Amino acid sequence: MEERVGEIWHNFITRMADKNYPEAEVKLVDIKKTVGVFFRALGGDGALSVLQTDASEYSSERGLLRRIARSTEKYEFAWLDEGALRLPEVIDYFATKTLNKELYLWLAALSSIPKQSADWLLDNQQRTQLALRAYPGLKALYQRLLNAHLSQRPEIDKISKAERAAEVLIVAALKNPGSVSELPPSKYMPRLVLLWLHPSPPVSQTEVAKDLGDSDNQRSGQEKDATDIGKKQAKRVETPEVARGLITIRMENLFTWGEFANMDRSTDDDEDPDNAKDVAKDLDELAIARNQRASKVQMKFDLDLPSEAMDDEILASGILLPEWDWKTQTLIENKCQVVSLVSSHEQDTQLPEHLKATAKKLRNQFQAITPARTWHYAQNDGQEIDMDAYLKYKTDALAGHSDGKVNLYKSLDSGARDLSCLLLADLSLSTDTWVNDDSRVIDVIQDSLYLFAESLKATGDRFGMYGFSSRKTNPIRIHTLKAFDEPYNGQIRSRIADIKPGYYTRMGAGIRHATSLLKNQVAMQQLLLVLTDGKPNDLDQYEGRYGIEDTKQAILSAKALGLKVFCVTIDEKANDYLPNLFGANGYSLVKKVTDLPKMLPMLYARLTI
């Protein structure tokens, strides 16, 4: 009975202390696309995706009800880092859905303005000024949000004297941005300002990695599984000693899970890898320690890669390519080294049995788009005599009107489309993922290459097929599956059958090398088709914004040479970054992975008709 009464009291006082409006909540997942378009339309960085943020501690003075309810001051602030615009998962601060939705839009507008100052107070005021000046249409929206927010702020005579001066200045800064230069010193932060960005954004993952001295043995394929834990505040601690002699255990010396979690998992592979991720989600602050021991996961990656004896044959090495550094806005020459390879196990291979029926259907469909064969008459050479031309020639000769030209043949020429296509397939380590009980991603890509080649052989179009993967800047591995001057035959099918998951996805380098191959083909239309299962990534700084920007520059360079660049992807998150890379109409997302083999040739047909 006592526990039940306590539970009722807790729920009651918590509801009284909570000033939110759950019935009017707006979720980021429902408005994410709109916010992204709005952010970019106002000049926000197109390379940034829209992600949810995590709750951060905010130690402002609490009212009486919050002190009774012992409510913690944790809020989901909006903020910007080098990889994403981060917004609250849910906004329910106001009594209407319209206002909560408009708050999302206002925070996106504020984020579209570059950072103005390292000081939180000055920065938010200056951003507000610039946003309202650049986009006058936002003034009415801001005024509605301001009126609603001011009505929620505490009355001056109901807060402590120590906090009154700061509250007066905050209200003045909201009403007249730019009018307040500093706040008086206080042991508390000012009351929460809903219309401003994060007062102290967490350290980005890139900076933490740089501080720790990122190295190969500190990275693993498990990293991507933990991307949804969000951003966390971090602190440096000493690595706890795990190998000690027999000592008397004192309970006060034990680490609690809230103080330290060995997220590297370098000395013990947990049977349930989700445990570490779940712990990280619950932590307010991550404890970061140096650990020089190589992880077992990294060793597994190395063992899965082919030995030199089993690797493909090197065709050419030492091809140097540039890379774009978005921070310095410069193209670094000779940054990447390409190694061109071809399978060393070529043999006459037949099309897999399960693809023969589909291949026959596609060949018939693609033959229908091939230009018809046509006769050319009155030629000086050809397969047959042109009887009309011969009779005209004899008649003119007998009449004495011959001009001396003897064009008595006709030739039958098959139609040909003046285009060249290069298919660049991502063969990174992520393609080793299973999509169902029977197939991995690499198997689906393999089937897609088979059917793509079968379809293009039916049209007579010139095409080449290449695969790529990378391990930092050296090497960028380019696997030649079919060169432009090679006929499609059993040897080409053998190369396709031999593809396997490789390393990582340095997409910018792959696209630059493909561009250099395709631009040498003489054709009116040149199509570069990129097939991938994820965003650009590698072991170094290429993970994140750096890789996105480099890939974007590679695509822009290809388009400047007159190439048409199109991407086909199976990545469910592709809509977050591909519009910025390839354009809104420059890519296609195949939602069901197993549909890729049949859809890829049809996409090609639509692009080239």
Can you offer a commentary on this structure?
Mean pLDDT is 79; it is low at 205-227, 254-261, 263-271 and 294-305. The chain has helices at 2-17, 28-41, 64-69, 97-111, 120-134, 138-152, 161-175, 205-212, 274-282, 296-304, 356-367, 387-398, 441-459, 490-497, 507-518, 545-560, 578-582, 596-608, and strands at 26-27, 49-52, 56-57, 74-75, 79-80, 84-87, 90-91, 233-236, 285-288, 313-325, 330-342, 374-379, 384-385, 409-413, 419-426, 462-470, 476-482, 525-532, 564-569, 587-589. The strands form 6 sheets. It has an 8-stranded mixed beta sheet with strand order 10-11-17-16-15-18-19-20, sandwiched between helices. It has a 3-stranded mixed beta sheet with strand order 2-6-5, covered by helices on one side. The chain has a 3-stranded antiparallel beta sheet with strand order 12-14-13. By secondary structure, it is α/β, with parallel strands linked by helices. It has 18 helices and 20 strands. Helix 2 crosses helix 4. It folds into 4 domains: 2-175, no CATH class; 205-304, no CATH class; 313-366 and 417-608, Rossmann fold (3-Layer(aba) Sandwich), CATH 3.40.50.410; 374-413, no CATH class. The relative contact order is 0.08. Helices cover 36% and strands 17% of the residues. Helix 16 links the parallel strand 18 and strand 19.
